[in-house]
Amino acid sequence: MTSTRSTEISLRVNGETHSLTVDNRTTLLDALRERLDLTGTKKGCDQGQCGACTVLLDRQRVNSCLQLAVAAEGREVTTIEGLADGEELHPVQQAFVDLDGYQCGYCTPGQICSAVAVIEELAREWPSAATDDVRRPPAVTEEEIRERMSGNLCRCGAYVNIVRAVTQAAKNEQVNA
Q1: Is 65 a member of any domain?
Q2: Same domain assignment for residues 99 and 165
Q3: Of 22, 29, 78, 162, which residue is most buried, by most CB within 10 angstroms?
Q4: Considering the domain boundaries, does residue 149 fall inside one?
Q5: Which residues of 143-167 are buried (b: 16+ CB within 10 A; e: fewer)?
Q6: Residue 95 maps to which CATH number?
Q7: 77 and 137, same structural domain?
Q8: In terms of domains, do 168 and 110 share one?
Q9: Which residues contact 49 (CB under 8 A, 6 or more apart)?
């Protein structure tokens, strides 16, 4: 008979600190949804293949279904609920609304969190597999966006508008930088 071990952790989520006692096997996704009632992050495949559970961990995207909650202690977690500034949508959220970057909406929180990280990657001039010349900053192109967003699946096939929304938000970010 095996015993389960629990650990008391402190999670900083969307700017607030939460103390939780969790089974050491609890994923960040389950801690967010079941313990903190942050249900915007969706459970899709629960295997890290669809991206519906994407959140930002220290401003980088992760599949929260693969991340243990205990391993997120001391790090900054941002979910879809933490992107807006009060009633004002995050620019990526606004672009998804403006350009109809969703259909059923199930994958949208993960898509948006991933897009926020993609735009930051581009701003940091990180190359991707689609970058033509890694000696120069990557351009904001549909090909670049598609490559970087490839870990986020949309069962409805709203990719054309998702790519348009991320591209618009990225170009607006460049203008405002």
Answers
A1: yes
A2: yes
A3: 162
A4: yes
A5: ebbbbbbeebbbeeebeebbbbbbb
A6: 1.10.150.120
A7: no
A8: yes
A9: 153
**Structural domain containing residue 131:** 91-176
Distance between CA atoms of residues 141 and 164, nearest Å: 10
Choose the final residue of a domain: 51, 82, 113.
82
Which band of pLDDT confidence, cut at 50, 70 and 90, is reported for residue 174? confident
- Rounded to whole angstroms, how far apart are CA atoms 93 and 23? 33
Is 154:54 a contact under the CB 8 Å cutoff?
no
pLDDT in tens, 153-170: 999 999 999 999 999 999
**Ordered DSSP codes for the chain:** -----EEEEEEEETTEEEEEEEETT-BHHHIIIIIS--TTS--SSSSSSS-TTEEEETTEEEETTTSBGGGGTTSEEE-GGGTSBTTBPPHHHHHHHHTT--SS-SSHHHHHHHHHHHHHHHHTT---TT-S-TTSPPP--HHHHHHHTTT---TT--HHHHHHHHHHHHHHHHHH-
Structure tokens at 19: 């103390």
pLDDT digits (tens, 9 = 90+) for 117-136: 999 999 999 999 999 999 99
Residue 163 tokens, joined: 């790519």
d(CA 119, CA 116): 5
